[in-house]
Amino acid sequence: MTALVATSNQIKYASPFADIAFEFAKVRAETERLCEPLESDDYVIQSMADVSPPKWHLAHTTWFFENFVLAPFVPGYVPFHPKFGYLFNSYYQSVGAFHPRVQRALSRPTVSQVYEYRKHVDLHLRELLIRAEGEALQEIGARVELGLHHEQQHQELLLTDIKHIFASNPLRPAYHRAPSRQESSSALRFFEFPGGLKQIGHDGEGFGYDNEMLRHPVYAADYDLASRLVTNGEFLQFIEAGGYRDPQYWLSEGWNVVNERGWSAPLYWERDATGAWQIMTLSGMTAIDEAEPACHVSYFEADAYARWAGKRLPTEAEWELAAQALPIQGNFRESGGLHPQAAGKSEGPAQLFGDVWEWTQSPYSAYPGYRPAPGSLGEYNGKFMCNQFVLRGGSCATPRSHIRATYRNFFTAADRWQFTGIRLARDRLAQKDRQAHMP
Amino acid sequence: MTALVATSNQIKYASPFADIAFEFAKVRAETERLCEPLESDDYVIQSMADVSPPKWHLAHTTWFFENFVLAPFVPGYVPFHPKFGYLFNSYYQSVGAFHPRVQRALSRPTVSQVYEYRKHVDLHLRELLIRAEGEALQEIGARVELGLHHEQQHQELLLTDIKHIFASNPLRPAYHRAPSRQESSSALRFFEFPGGLKQIGHDGEGFGYDNEMLRHPVYAADYDLASRLVTNGEFLQFIEAGGYRDPQYWLSEGWNVVNERGWSAPLYWERDATGAWQIMTLSGMTAIDEAEPACHVSYFEADAYARWAGKRLPTEAEWELAAQALPIQGNFRESGGLHPQAAGKSEGPAQLFGDVWEWTQSPYSAYPGYRPAPGSLGEYNGKFMCNQFVLRGGSCATPRSHIRATYRNFFTAADRWQFTGIRLARDRLAQKDRQAHMP
Amino acid sequence: MTALVATSNQIKYASPFADIAFEFAKVRAETERLCEPLESDDYVIQSMADVSPPKWHLAHTTWFFENFVLAPFVPGYVPFHPKFGYLFNSYYQSVGAFHPRVQRALSRPTVSQVYEYRKHVDLHLRELLIRAEGEALQEIGARVELGLHHEQQHQELLLTDIKHIFASNPLRPAYHRAPSRQESSSALRFFEFPGGLKQIGHDGEGFGYDNEMLRHPVYAADYDLASRLVTNGEFLQFIEAGGYRDPQYWLSEGWNVVNERGWSAPLYWERDATGAWQIMTLSGMTAIDEAEPACHVSYFEADAYARWAGKRLPTEAEWELAAQALPIQGNFRESGGLHPQAAGKSEGPAQLFGDVWEWTQSPYSAYPGYRPAPGSLGEYNGKFMCNQFVLRGGSCATPRSHIRATYRNFFTAADRWQFTGIRLARDRLAQKDRQAHMP
Amino acid sequence: MTALVATSNQIKYASPFADIAFEFAKVRAETERLCEPLESDDYVIQSMADVSPPKWHLAHTTWFFENFVLAPFVPGYVPFHPKFGYLFNSYYQSVGAFHPRVQRALSRPTVSQVYEYRKHVDLHLRELLIRAEGEALQEIGARVELGLHHEQQHQELLLTDIKHIFASNPLRPAYHRAPSRQESSSALRFFEFPGGLKQIGHDGEGFGYDNEMLRHPVYAADYDLASRLVTNGEFLQFIEAGGYRDPQYWLSEGWNVVNERGWSAPLYWERDATGAWQIMTLSGMTAIDEAEPACHVSYFEADAYARWAGKRLPTEAEWELAAQALPIQGNFRESGGLHPQAAGKSEGPAQLFGDVWEWTQSPYSAYPGYRPAPGSLGEYNGKFMCNQFVLRGGSCATPRSHIRATYRNFFTAADRWQFTGIRLARDRLAQKDRQAHMP
Questions:
Q1: D165 close to C (CB below 8 A)
Q2: Integer CA distances (angstroms), D250 to A68, A93, D308, in order
Q3: D348 and D190 in contact (C-beta within 8 Å)?
């Protein structure tokens, strides 16, 4: 999972102790704060197989600490409930059997029992952090740090799952009241990036998942990267030009998905009675803002849009090479809007961090020399390296402290209930030059 | 629906006014009483497509009164919520579009909003009953009476759906604490019934659904009917004799279902770690009682058991001819156990009413001269007369006042989450006599 | 299967020996004659799960004789091929494992090997018929007779399967050249039939399947039966009136099927470029003839049409009571057209036999006292008595000698690749009289 | 498709004219020669959705020439049949509608009509080649060259589809009589390959598909590559060690596939009555040979085996860097066995070419600067760059002249009906060194 975990017991976690206890309290509280707007009924819904009920997120993140920290490090620790290991293990085969993903809508344990579960585990974990020392403390610290990053991932999922749950409800309830939104966007430009033999990947300083390790050389040709994300207005042109009905822009599998699922716009886009586009947000239904980044598009849609526009999606290396020199700032969860914003003006490439996860054309694969962590935690990332695409940069639902330039998110090509959008790239080599290189 | 409704505006409802207002209050309150043991979380779960969340039952039965009584009879009535007609219409195509059945797990409206909806409709309905008079009162009374029988049906579904919801939960929670159970059963005998040209069906006295009208002649040959229901002990013998693995006892479609779904016992039967059979009840998991009636079997299992036992299931006419002279007494919901009981001793056929719905070999078809009620209420019964089998007699979850000898319940051949069981029948004509009749 | 088989060894088959040998030669040759128009490629296609490749029909009917006659009655008989029992058993669980129905499209054995198989079995069977005597001959004769009726059923399936295979091919090939068709139809009238306690079912004289035994009393009320089948012209009115888009006419399950499969007309109906209706026949595509009987409708469509027309489908008893006095004549396979014809003029009810199988409203159930034949042959009929409807009268693809007034055919409510059509019935009891009978 | 096509009209095809006409005759004849062992019945079978009937391959490769060469370059050319464009277009959306892939089992056109179609197109194409000149000849030549490589791909598919068709038939027929097989294999070693900034991809000399263009720099770390393919004997150890039942070796999606499809060995492996492993080959069933390469494994199985063995699959760059210096020799289709052979002794890495396609860990993605050919031929490769893995080196069913070091084949991770196998790789960096690099 982390460099620490991956190399196990001889190294120390990235943060000093006081930080980890403080971080633990903060992250755990934040998860519960995100649930405050929910009615009791909302906690239980699984609106599609990919969505987990909010109650499940609350319990699963807790189980992660109970199973990977309390159970191995607290002598004689008795699990809060004998069945919770079965119910709230997500996918760790080596930990034991787990409840089928599609059946996570369960009335028992109740919401209040799950909150008790959280309290119980938090209490024991804080005690453990106070008492632990030496090598054990290092390992505990490393695992808690991992658990907190894990919980931050689930905080984002909580928000995207709640959005899906609310959007699936004919009453279209609102999760919160949105702050007013910025309106303007700038013209699309391209910035030039020089190619060559470069380095990407995590260098081991600070926290990182195993899938972003190790830092390694990659060769990239010269490329251009768009100054900002594709906007709703630009995506509307694609729709109006018949983009969803013309197979030439689509991957073969994408074209099948478009037709089988009847897609004609991004997820959460609906026409009202007058034919005007409305979109579902965490503040409820609202008129579309053409300056905002297009959001809730699948890889298939991102790729089709790019082809239609005569461009392409960037590789993850291209994205990272552009991002690694930039400060990590943008429209993150802390901004409070929980919705992507128009780019405004910028000297360099804007919106690389925050707003929407950016689809890259890179399949999610192992970096050279990748080895999953030993034991159950090795199931965290590695076993998903198949039929997924990498997304970069975080979104308006990502905590600021969770993201970094080397961070590799991944979803399958048809997924679109996350805050996912499009940044264009293009080859430097002009068509004329291309031909000169041909035999 | 009812004789009254079917013949519309020239007749009066079966009960005098005071009764209907009193009945309304009683039945509506009873529905809510049945929900008292539920946690807030329980109201929202749809554990399979056939199950509706308890919250939905509460709202749908309310919508029935709002749509079929308040809307047509209260001038200027404004529905409680503009979307509830869409959300809580079950299947009445002629009323308008309705929410897909498989998506009834919705967090909004919340449980408390649904209870407010009930209060609102109850209030307006009581006012209407007080003010109405003349022909309108007759029609209102007839529709309210129908609505109350409809609500009683949903009371039974509430219990069987809660049972399914709880049985699907790995924690196997209990709905209530069961009273202690009776233990003994008597030996199986057969009672002789004479055939001939007889009458079955509802004669129009008192309430009845349209599907049990009209009383009409049927010819039945002499037949024998079992003195009681098939017991768990008897059904265990079928299991232990390999009944679930031998195609000779099964209808072709039933054999496919057995293999596709991996059935090897009735629903809610599980072996514990020692191999002993446990069953899920509304009081939680319990050891099997061999004297109790076998329950939660599909038509396929009932039919296979009967073949294995060298008998057959009765026709619905045979059942009704036996039942029509008997008093309507038995183990109904009012007994409180919500579980079938051993038969005990009896002079005549026991358990015809209550305990478990009895599968008959009769497909659910129109009686001669059947015509559905005009308008939307005509969708109540008639459109389901395809690929269903008739069940008779009510169960331990049926209100005593809801059942009668002519009552026709119906489910598809693979359904088994209702309290459904088996009564055997056999032809009087001996094999030897049969041959004498052959050419 | 037959009265003979059902009562086993003490009775004799219905036909004297010379007949049976002659019949055997004739029926077997007829099957092969029906395949003459086929190209080698046509023998192998399975255009949907319900369809069997022609080669399979040729082999399966042969296996029936090999397995049920040669194997038990020819001492030391060695099957033609050790795997053919597995490949060409259709559904007889008690005979042994069989190849999955959906995988009947197999290249080996080749067409010529299957014809060799037929020759081999025919040769041995003729020898057996010559040598057999006494009780064995009786049983052999009964089984051969059954096998020939079985083969006649498959002759009809051969034709309907070939029609489906050809209709599924974008080239829409023709099986044969049709004779010119009759053009006019008569106005629809209703004939009155008196009710009362009557007899239906097979009396044991001559051949019959077990499912039409025994002759037994039924009570029927007075009823009216249409003078002829519903025509294409009449069915077109239903289509043009929006019948396929209005749920009020449809059974609930039928409405689901209509929408899931996108039905908007009977099977094999297509609009050409000008919007005119064309239908696929065994002579290829042709313009629709409004005077011809509507064909290739499912039970759902037949029932919906009847509701739209303010009538109903007859019960199987009503059909049989009308048919049992009539001569068995009509547009059968022997007419050569393999297509239903307009009714022409008639004194009494026309088209009861031949043209199209007539859907009745009767679910396919056991007659009173029904017991399947002992042994494997008992699987012939009984295990399908679930979720099917009875059809009566034979079709333009039925051999004249195969049909009788008591004959019960059965298909599921959504099936429509057989020659199936609609005859209307209505209750005698007028609406005014109905009300007089109400309480 | 090819450099030629990609850059359109200003360049010439890679082979001089005489060659292309000669090649055309040779390749077309070879396709038909491969069909000689087939019975007429075999041409029509589609044993699973991925398989095409042999008849379809014969027609589709012909349509390719008709549509992409005759139609655009022969003035007034009339297609052989107006519907063949619809029937035999595989997936070219821009050419027009096409028949659904899963419905390719069609009896018409017949086998002999398809052979007539081939003759017709061959005749016109030869005439065109004789008459064409100048730029048109260049473009025609380029397209014919592409069409011949396309047909060679289908020759391999013909063989793998026939193998699947025969293996799906309970009679397990043989396609040909295999030559006797070599028996011994050598011990597995690893060869060291130095990393660095290298070049892979097609340089434009000679024929190549668009997906292997352009030659471009890649950085690779030092790596080791296995001396030969994984053998049946080695793979058996994985099976016997419970590899198919232990999730730790499997990608998450692979584990689902293993369980849903009940995989416990490679495709075409069966245990006989004694428990001994048999495999299906194009010569029929045969005892397994432990020295032969393991074959008919999916990516999931290849990857799981590699993990179990403590190694990994190579990247496509690693494979190509090792192969690009080697002569293209091995067990190709021309060897006649149509079955992988034991490696024998070798100085360097053996079996890189021929025997089995080698799964790489590289998802099938665009090379830098990749642009599909303009027009319909651009659909040849690019639209499949999603959820596929690259395979390298050709197989025992690949024509020798079809393969090269830069050739990129691709299938989805669960596919295993091609001749696919496993070559292991490992990182040079030892575990100890790894840790030294960690923070």
A1: yes
A2: 22, 10, 9
A3: no
Burial class (CB in 10 A: 0-12, 13-18, 19+), D260: exposed
Sheet bearing B425-427, strands edge to edge: B190-193, B223-226, B425-427
Residues of C in contact with D106 (CB under 8 A): 45, 169-170
pTM of the complete model: 0.94
Nearest residue in chain A measured CA to CA from D377: A248
| Confidence label for C1 from pLDDT (cuts 50, 70 and 90) | very low
- The answer to whether residue B161 sits within a structural domain is yes
The pair of three-digit structure tokens given for residue A182, joined into one six-digit string: 């910025």
D125 and D197 inside one domain: no
Same domain? For B352 and B236 the reply is yes
DSSP string, A298-322: -HHHHHHHHHHTT-BPPPHHHHHHH
Q: How many residues does chain A have?
A: 439
SS3 of residue C397 by DSSP: coil
Minimum distance, in Å, between the CA of residue C224 and any CA atom of chain B = 12
Q: How far is D102 from chain C (nearest CA, A)?
A: 11
Is position A219 within any domain?
yes
What is the average pLDDT across D202-210? Answer: 93
Count of structural domains, chain B: 2
Neighbors of chain B with 3 or more C-beta pairs under 8 Å? A, C
Buried b (16+ CB within 10 A) or exposed e, D301-332: bbbbbbbbbebbbbbbbbbbbbbeeeebebbb
- Specify if A34 maps to a domain: yes
Nearest to D387 by CA among A365, A262, A369, A370: A365
Looking at the complex, report in whole angstroms how far the Cα of residue D376 sits from the nearest Cα belonging to chain C. 24
| B420 and B287 in a common domain | yes
Does the distance separating the beta carbons of B252 and C386 come in below 8 Å? yes
Q: Are residues B56 and B127 in the same domain?
A: yes
If residue A411 lies in a helix (H) or strand (E), which one and from where to where?
strand A409-411
Taking only the tens place, the pLDDT of each residue in D86-129 is 999 999 988 899 999 999 999 999 999 999 999 999 999 999 99
In single-letter form, the type of residue at position C209 comes to Y
Confidence of residue A293 (pLDDT cuts 50, 70, 90): very high
Reported as half-sphere exposure (CB side, CA atoms, 13 A), residue B397 has a value of: 24
A290 pLDDT above the threshold of 70: yes
Residues spanned by the domain of D95: 3-167
Which two tokens mark B271? 């072996």
From chain B, pick out residues whose CB is under 8 angstroms from the CB of C427.
Answer: 368-369
Cβ–Cβ below 8 Å for D369 and A216: no
B202-225 pLDDT, tens digit each: 998 999 999 999 999 999 999 999
With beta carbons under 8 A apart, name residues in chain B contacting A79: none
CA C50-C55-C56 angle, to 5 degrees, is 50
Domain contains D61: yes
Co-location of B129 and B80 in the same domain: yes
The Cβ of residue A421 has, within 10 Å, a number of other Cβ atoms equal to 30
